[in-house]
Specification:
Bound molecules: ligand PLA
Catalytic activity: L-aspartate + 2-oxoglutarate = oxaloacetate + L-glutamate
Keywords: Aminotransferase, Pyridoxal phosphate, Transferase
Strand order of the largest sheet: 4-12-11-10-9-5-6
InterPro entries: Aminotransferase_I/II_large, Asp_trans, NHTrfase_class1_PyrdxlP-BS, PyrdxlP-dep_Trfase, PyrdxlP-dep_Trfase_major, PyrdxlP-dep_Trfase_small
Shape: globular
Helix content: 40-55%
Family: Belongs to the class-I pyridoxal-phosphate-dependent aminotransferase family.
Domain Aminotransferase class I/classII large: 86-452
Distance between the termini: 24 Å
């Protein structure tokens, strides 16, 4: 536990904290700096001891070492381990049966087409990104026949993958929305808290996962959102909830939608796994489409990292569904003001790959098949791991492994058991007991099952 505070003249800072959004953000951060924080949160903290030019110490000598990221740091630790039997089940990145990263065939084809097209140049994209890409991206999540698209009620901007889309959305909300509180599920992807806090919003949680049933705590969820202030922003995972792998049923989504609309709360969907949950792009967009169909406002952050395997290309988009076309175009004009000083305009290559695939009927079809194959392989891994634990008579009910959806299994293993598995079996995973099923293969399932068995029977 650390306690941090501004070392500089406080009254100066207080004077500066007026109403503009940057100042609000400072005020939120300074508030956080005065609170006890854990190691994870410390990663986002500004140095508590700014280096002064009069000091004889080297510059930044007082800069504290930040901890590694709880997810990406797992890969750092894995890379340092010289053992050949090591297994990385930390970050959610798809691997083949051979344990290798996969570039989709359809992506290779699209890249070839792009390289062969001599008319393509490397000019800057517009601030909002590649027009074909943003149009097709909105269609992918909302459906081609969506009335919101047909009525020009949606503005879509190309952003830096899912993270960048959430970040731009958060910045926009901090500047233009009257409610400053966002409710995120407990638990959720660890970066959500940091993204929204840094934008100047206040982050609160709503109950989501019930560790006893290993299912959705729908009662707690409805109670918490029911007692949230009206207008609050609500972050929802469109499908394949990370880290739990637990999604609401369609009926439960409908209950959630009714509650959110009745309290005029603002839904913000994080869609990082469209196609990865069920293997069907349309099926995995049902939650979002349910909300958009009622005509209310909605934010959607999309990522092509997982479903097109474009992790490092950083392709994503933010769509904001508004009630009128005029509002949508004004919102877009303000999004440009958010983006321009952040990174000016987005990169061209990844978005060109996506739009090449989305606009060609054959390539699109081929993509859906490759996507389904990835989703199916993950489902097969679930079955194999479940069977392997049953065969070992590992104590406990492991049926959640086959019930959960998407890239991750939320095993229920505790921090000590995870540490044991890393130390004794060189299995790398996040300390909350999440494993990336996409990192497993038939060859490595027995090793993981042995490790889980040993952890459960020898570490409490
Ligand atoms: N939203 C959720 C729910 C995610 O799980 C992730 C990625 C993102 C957004 C952002 O992805 P992008 O910016 O790469 O598009 N989560 C990963 C990787 C797969 C990570 O932590 O960055 C994870 O292992 O949880």
């Amino acid at each position: 536990m650390l306690y941090l505070f501004f070392a500089s003249d406080e009254s100066e800072n207080v004077k500066k904290m007026k109403s503009c959004s940057a100042d609000r953000r400072l005020s939120v951060i300074s508030h956080h700096l005065l609170l006890p924080i854990n190691d994870d949160e410390a990663a986002i903290i500004i140095s508590p001891s700014p280096t002064s030019s009069s000091s004889s110490d080297p510059l930044f000598a007082n800069t504290p070492r930040a901890p590694e990221d709880p997810i990406l740091g797992v890969t750092v630790a894995y890379n340092k381990d010289p053992t050949p039997v090591k297994l990385n089940l930390g970050v959610g990145a798809y691997r083949t049966e051979e344990g290798k990263p996969l570039v989709l065939n359809v992506v290779r084809k699209a890249e070839q087409l792009l390289v062969n097209d001599r008319s393509r140049v490397k000019e800057y994209l517009p601030i909002v990104g590649l027009a074909d890409f943003t149009k097709l991206s909105a269609k992918l999540i909302l459906g081609a026949d969506s009335p919101a698209i047909l009525g020009n009620l949606v503005t879509t901007v190309q952003c830096l993958s899912g993270t960048g889309s959430l970040r731009v959305g958060a910045e926009f909300l901090a500047r233009h929305y009257y409610q400053r509180t966002i409710y995120i599920p407990n638990p959720t992807w660890g970066n959500h808290t940091k993204i929204f806090t840094l934008a100047g919003l206040t982050v609160k949680t709503y109950r989501y996962y019930d560790p006893v049933t290993r299912g959705l705590n729908i009662k707690g969820l409805l109670e918490d959102l029911g007692s949230a202030p009206s207008g609050a922003i609500v972050l929802l995972h469109a499908c394949a909830h990370n880290p739990t792998g637990v999604d609401p049923t369609l009926e439960q989504w409908e209950q959630i939608r009714r509650l959110i609309r009745s309290k005029t709360m603002l839904p913000f969907f994080d869609s990082a796994y469209q196609g990865f949950a069920s293997g069907s792009l349309d099926e995995d967009a049902r939650s979002v489409r349910l909300f958009v169909a009622d005509g209310g406002e909605c934010f959607i952050a999309q990522s092509y990292a997982k479903n097109m395997g474009l992790y490092g290309e950083r392709v994503g988009s933010l769509s904001i569904v508004c009630r009128t076309a005029d509002v949508a175009s004004r919102v877009e004009s303000q999004l440009k003001l958010v983006i321009r000083p952040m990174y000016s305009n987005p990169p061209i290559h990844g978005a060109s790959i996506v739009s090449t695939i989305l606009k060609d009927r054959n390539l699109y079809q081929e993509w859906t098949l490759e996507l389904k194959a990835m989703a199916d392989r993950i489902i097969t891994m679930r079955k194999q791991l479940f069977d392997a634990l049953r065969a070992r008579e590992t104590p406990g009910d492991w049926s959640h492994i086959i019930k959960q959806i998407g890239m991750f299994t939320f095993t229920g293993l505790n921090t000590k058991q995870v540490a044991f598995m890393t130390r004794e079996y060189h299995i790398y995973m996040t300390s909350d007991g999440r494993i990336s099923m996409a990192g497993l293969s038939s060859r490595t399932v027995p090793h993981l099952a042995d490790a889980i068995h040993a952890a459960v029977t020898s570490v409490v």
